[in-house]
Amino acid sequence: MDSPFDGGFLVGAGSFPRSDYPRPGRRPSSNGFNAARPGIDRQIYSVEFITSTERCTGMSINEIKTTVFGFMGTQPSRLGQPGATPVCSFRLGSTPAYYDAAAGAWKRKPTTWLTVKAFRTLAVNALACLHKGDPVMVSGSLVTEEWTSDGQPHSSLVLVADGIGHDLARGQDAFTRIQSGAASIDEGADGSDPWTTPLASSSPETAAASGSSAAEKTSAEAPIAG
């Protein structure tokens, strides 16, 4: 039997588009899949396929794109020197929950921690809007950073963010649009420090609305269901 990965690229959640998905009761096939536990294996091995044409547009080959739901473990911190490209970093914690039918209650698995880095406008806005404890969603690319300290090699898994947002399933938030080109966020091309140059809102009405109520700017975390 052909591998279900023939002609596709494994990138994330989805479903098998082929009819040779392993069925319950079948012996393990040559591709290593074992569907002896229906439902469980179907979830574990659900994937999405990208054709070879799509693979070459907008994504590097073997680039790991992912979205993580979690909470801010630290305040965002500024990295780099004044006048350089804005960069910020924070720790992101993700704690999966599952329902224990025997106990009749929700339980939590151990927390997984990641370092998140954001660049340019995303870094500036993250530093201004995100706070320790906020429930967030972070989408980006997983990369490995390597360095040497005291002659010893070290490495760390980092999520380079493409987008960050508050998890609205946990609370409420307000949005202020930034006027396009309002401030330079590249490498200090105009001589100013992008970290200290305010980003203008799109209109006076938007700015007034965003400052009219402090409650609208506060993420009120809701309790987890169950």
Q: How far apart are the termini?
A: 43 Å
**Which fold name fills CATH's third level, the topology of the largest domain?**
OB fold (Dihydrolipoamide Acetyltransferase, E2P)
The helix content, as a percent range, equals 10-25%
Q: Which structural class should the secondary elements be placed in?
A: alpha+beta
Main sheet summary: 5 strands, mixed, barrel
Q: Give me the CATH architecture of the largest domain, please.
A: Beta Barrel
- The tally of strands reads 8
Overall form: globular
Describe the model.
The protein has 226 residues and is an alpha+beta fold. The protein folds into 2 domains: 1-62, no CATH class; 65-217, Beta Barrel (OB fold (Dihydrolipoamide Acetyltransferase, E2P)). The protein has 4 helices and 8 strands; from the N terminus they run H-H-E-E-E-E-E-E-H-E-E-H. The strands form 2 sheets. The protein has a 5-stranded mixed barrel. A two-stranded antiparallel sheet has the order 4-5. Residues 16-37, 183-226 are annotated as: Disordered. Keywords: DNA-binding. Residues 197-226 have a biased composition (Low complexity).
Search tags:
226 residues, alpha+beta, 2 domains, 5-stranded mixed β-barrel, two-stranded antiparallel sheet, 4 helices, globular, disordered C terminus, NA-bd_OB-fold, Single-stranded DNA-binding protein, single-stranded DNA binding, DNA-binding, Primosome_PriB/ssb
